Amino acid sequence: MTVIHVFPGQGAHRVGMGKELFASYPHLVRQADAVLGYSIDELCLRGPESRLSDTRYTQCAMYTVGALAYIDRIRTTGELPDYVAGHSLGEYVALFAAGAFDFVTGVELVAKRAALMADVGPGAMAAVLGITADQVRAVLARDGGPQVDIANLNAPEQTVVSGPPEDIAAAVSLLKAETRGAVVPLKVSGAFHAWPMAPAAKEFERFLAGYRFAPLRIPVVSNATARLYEDAEIEALLVRQLTSPVRWTESVGFLLDQPEPEFHELGPGQVLTGLISEIRAKRPVPAGMAS
């Protein structure tokens, strides 16, 4: 059996998350508060929803809850995972779990990342359901099409596009008119994992130059490459992640190829568990196994 821990990102957050964890690890909560300058447990437990949904705060909250959930899982079970992976912001929890940096350093990195992404300005994202990423690309690649990027490859028939608000609005109209897919605008304020994040990525690269990362003790699957991190490329891949799509379908495919994979989602909700089930169900049947 291969034990795999996965960590969700923005979108899985909710007011009330982390209640039991904050009570169990007050010393770590105080450390996060000292870095952030506000009470992380008050934010998570009381909101308001509007503030918790602001990416400046969402990312810090999701990292803290995810990291505490991992610590609690290891403390409770005594069992380390064989692999870890996170979706978008969740990748920072995966890297913390793998020993790339300590808890407080993770808070510092995520707080800076969140601030830089928020400072980029307005953006939008939309999920396209029921058609493949190639079909989405074919529609959007036409001359004069909207200036949007593929941001998340979440499942074989779930793709997220990202870009300036006016371009996403045009993409939504185009995709609704010319495909059978359902198109759902997402409740975000930024064009994450897309070309508008290039200025944030450049500034984040300068920021990361002040840090040194420890060798990974557990294999981590990268969002940007859908393969395992090498110790020497942590900084580069964290920068690249800001403007690159989250290749979740391929990442999960790699993990499903491991012997008897057993997934555990740590953090609020079961969003990733649902995506993993969808990816598993739509995988091609290996040759010789079809009835």
Automatic annotation (TrEMBL):
Q: Which residues form the Malonyl-CoA:ACP transacylase (MAT) domain?
A: 6-291
Q: Which SUPFAM superfamilies match?
A: FabD/lysophospholipase-like, Probable ACP-binding domain of malonyl-CoA ACP transacylase
Please name the Pfam families in this protein's record: Acyl_transf_1
A Gene Ontology cellular-component term: cytosol
Keyword vocabulary terms for this entry: Acyltransferase, Transferase
Q: Which top EC class applies here? A: transferase
SMART domains attached to this UniProt entry: PKS_AT (SM00827)
Instruction: Check the record and name the Gene3D superfamilies matching this protein.
Output: Malonyl-CoA ACP transacylase, ACP-binding, Malonyl-Coenzyme A Acyl Carrier Protein, domain 2
Q: What family does this chain come from, according to its entry? A: Belongs to the fabD family.
The protein's name is Malonyl CoA-acyl carrier protein transacylase
Q: Which organism is it from?
A: Streptomyces violaceusniger
